[in-house]
Write a structure and sequence with these properties.
447 residues, alpha/beta, 2 domains, nine-stranded mixed beta sheet, four-stranded antiparallel beta sheet, globular
């Protein structure tokens, strides 16, 4: 019996009296009423009192923590433009000193690099996100990556991803990243349609986007992946299929397919509210995903997660997969978020606050919280993300859920009515909903 099954069985359960009907789905393509947001959680996070944050952090630094996979997230909070769909914009690069930011980021990296926390566990993946990491200069990018390579306990096969945009990502920056040790580039394309790109604040044309992908892949020294989004204003099924045909003919190692997420306080949300543009219907979003999934499957791409596909063995999507499985991740940079053991945290979004706290030789927290999500929930999430959930791993008596399994099978979310839930393409689309449903059920079944 697995550890999780033992844990669950060690608690009293509500047994067959538990009502599963509220988790039943409708038959047909649109099984749930709406998609569950990616950042939603069924578990409460409890903020740590401000006066206790530094002491809790010092305690964490002195420990090796549980032997789980360890990652690093590095945030570069600058963008050249503010994309219409983006809710994460922090600072315009032209109004800020990226060298000053780099100097302070290096100060943060060096601050606790020799601690037991940092040195006790190999780092399996580093992700540079933002913002736009490639808003930094070639010299600055190389300096940061090199510090990680020289001072942190990186695993021999550590995945080092640089997220970037076409704009200002020139050969000098590409070569600096490669020379320092980056081995994966994630390029935010969203769409190759020039008109739609420009309406979203992406000004490179279709031809420029294609040329850039070909150029960076020509180095043949790192995995190259790109993002495509569906449900964009002005997008049609024909333009979506054109995007899919383009990526199939580019030398890419991997691709992400993401539904547009209409975030509040964005230009996109404002335009929808004022009826300048029309939001995609739920059925349209579903159909875009199924068409994309089938198109990639037909030409041999391997689905690594619900939204990510690989064409070559060079692409592992390691950081994103391990995050969903509950890996610990250190975090550095203004606006970065991390998770360590039972704690999650966010660093100061204000550059002034970030700089001021580092001048005091302290970690620049905006908040530190005690994370209530149990380890079994992370493992459930990880299995849902890869499309196969083994219920006996979580419950010694998975038959308690047989009525729900039957319903999901009839709704064509899973391939059969066994206790090993292998998701259909429709199930992969609803993967987050399936995870959240099971997470809520297990919380209530286990007393």
């Amino acid at each position: 019996m697995s550890t999780i099954a033992t844990l669950c069985n060690g608690n009293k359960t509500r047994g067959s009296s538990f009502d599963l009907s509220s988790f039943y789905t409708e038959q047909g393509a649109y099984a749930f009423s709406k998609k569950t947001p990616v950042n939603s959680t069924a578990h409460q996070n409890i903020p740590i009192a401000k006066e206790k944050v530094d002491n809790v952090w010092q305690t964490l630094l002195s420990q090796s923590l549980n032997p789980v996979k360890r990652l690093i997230y590095t945030h570069i909070p600058f963008c050249a433009t503010h994309c219409a769909f983006c809710g994460f914009f922090q600072n315009a690069v032209k109004k800020n000193d990226t060298q000053k930011y780099t100097d302070y980021l290096m100060k943060e990296l060096a601050q606790n690099v020799d601690s037991t926390l940092v040195q006790s566990t190999p780092i399996h993946a580093i992700y540079f996100g933002g913002g736009t990491p490639t808003a930094l200069s070639a010299k600055q990018l190389k300096q940061i990556i090199s510090f990680y390579k020289n001072h942190f306990p990186l695993a021999p096969d550590c995945e080092i991803t640089i997220e970037g945009r076409i704009l200002n990502f020139d050969e000098e920056k590409i070569e600096a990243c490669l020379e320092a040790g980056a081995n994966r580039f994630s390029i935010g394309i969203q769409t190759f349609d020039t008109k739609i790109r420009r309406s979203m604040g992406r000004y490179a044309s279709k031809e420029q986007a294609i040329t850039f992908i070909e150029k960076i892949a020509h180095y043949n020294s790192a995995a190259v992946v790109c993002d495509l989004m569906f449900g964009l204003p002005g997008q049609t099924m024909d333009s979506w299929q054109t995007d899919l045909e383009i990526v199939q003919n580019l030398p890419l190692d991997g691709i992400d397919l993401y539904a547009i997420n209409i975030l509040p306080n964005t230009k996109l949300a404002e335009n929808i509210a004022s009826q300048k543009i029309v939001a995609p219907t739920p059925e349209e979003i579903y159909n875009y995903y199924i068409v994309g999934q089938q198109a990639l499957y037909n030409v041999g791409w391997v689905q690594l997660s619900n939204n990510h596909w690989a064409r070559t063995t060079r692409e592992r999507n390691l950081y994103n997969l391990l995050i969903k499985q509950g890996a610990d991740f250190l975090a550095y940079g203004s606006g970065a978020g991390g998770r360590l053991d039972n704690y999650s945290f966010m660093l100061a979004r204000s550059l002034e606050h970030y700089y001021a706290v580092l001048d005091e030789q302290r970690k620049p927290f905006m908040m530190l919280m005690h994370n209530q999500q149990p380890s079994w929930s992370h493992q459930l999430q990880g299995q849902a993300e890869t499309g196969l959930i083994h219920l006996p791993h979580f419950l010694e008596q998975p038959s308690l859920l047989q009525p729900l399994i039957n319903n999901w099978y009839q709704s064509k979310l899973i391939t059969d009515d066994s206790f090993h839930l292998r998701m259909t393409p429709s199930g992969r689309f609803w993967g987050r909903n399936i995870y959240m449903a099971l997470d809520n059920i297990l919380k209530q079944i286990i007393v």
